[in-house]
Amino acid sequence: MATVTETPTGGMADSAHLARVTFRIRRFNPESSEHAFWQDFTLDIDPKERVLDALHQIKWEEDGTLTFRRSCAHGICGSDAMRINGKNRLACKTLIKDIADLDGGPKAKPVVIEPLKGMTVQKDLIVDMEPFFQAYRDVMPFLITTGNQPSREHRQSAEQRERFDDTTKCILCAACTGACPVFWNDGQYFGPAAIVNAHRFIFDSRDEGAEQRLEILNDRDGVWRCRTIFNCTDACPRGIEVTKAIQEVKQALITRRF
Ligand code: SF4
Ligand code: FES
């Protein structure tokens, strides 16, 4: 007979609807070993739950030392980007049923969860985000204006706003930068997320700092390092056309029109 159990999100799941899924997680604890290792956790879980719920279930019921970031749990804060079955995704926006082998038998493939590539792992699924945020700060992601304080709001037409609408959606999750082979090979590259956030201001009609930002991105580690591989666009959970934004910044560097 089916039993009713509480799910990690507080809902109720009928045991008849639970699936047996193995999560293979890359573990690393610098306090106990210099080597990372894989650990399997097999859960009976509602496949309509998210990967974040599975991580919670593991942490709360199996191994409290499992370490990962998350905050909003609703795709807004960008803190739980990780590599799930080889693709960068937000754990809170990834349904288990969409990525797991629900066969349940001994040959069922595990869901493989790793930290983002190209960034120093601090513990388990947590990477050091400081170089990522330094690149973000370097492109001056704020409105730059000169002259007197305006006496009324900065006016902008719908068309002018539309010009940079796509890049306003960034939640700084680093899924794009952590999917970029150029960044993997050389962490000095600004990376797609910093360029996306530069784009957001370069093409803002109210801003006067575009020339400064373009010069920053004209650097040896700047926008020209992009090889137009599109991994960043594929990885972005917000659907931002990251590669297109990078191309537009390159174009602005050549034409000085923005
Ligand atoms: S551009 Fe997309 S993938 Fe990159 S940091 Fe922003 S939201 Fe994340
Ligand atoms: S926890 Fe905030 S985006 Fe996933």
Written description of the protein model:
This protein has 258 residues and is α+β, with helices and mostly antiparallel strands. It has 2 domains: 123 residues, Beta-grasp domain (Ubiquitin-like (UB roll)); 127 residues, Orthogonal Bundle (Fumarate Reductase Iron-sulfur Protein, Chain B, domain 2). It is 28% helix and 16% strand. A 5-stranded mixed sheet has the order 4-3-7-5-6, covered by helices on one side. A two-stranded antiparallel ribbon has the order 1-2. Strands 8-9 form a two-stranded antiparallel sheet. α6 packs across α9. The mean pLDDT is 93. The structure holds iron/sulfur cluster and FE2/S2 (inorganic) cluster (FES). Pathway: Carbohydrate metabolism; tricarboxylic acid cycle. One of its GO terms (biological process) is respiratory electron transport chain. GO terms for molecular function: 2 iron, 2 sulfur cluster binding; 3 iron, 4 sulfur cluster binding; 4 iron, 4 sulfur cluster binding; electron transfer activity; metal ion binding; succinate dehydrogenase (quinone) activity. Keywords: 2Fe-2S, 3Fe-4S, 4Fe-4S, Iron, Iron-sulfur, Metal-binding, Oxidoreductase, Tricarboxylic acid cycle. Its cofactor is [3Fe-4S] cluster; [2Fe-2S] cluster; [4Fe-4S] cluster.
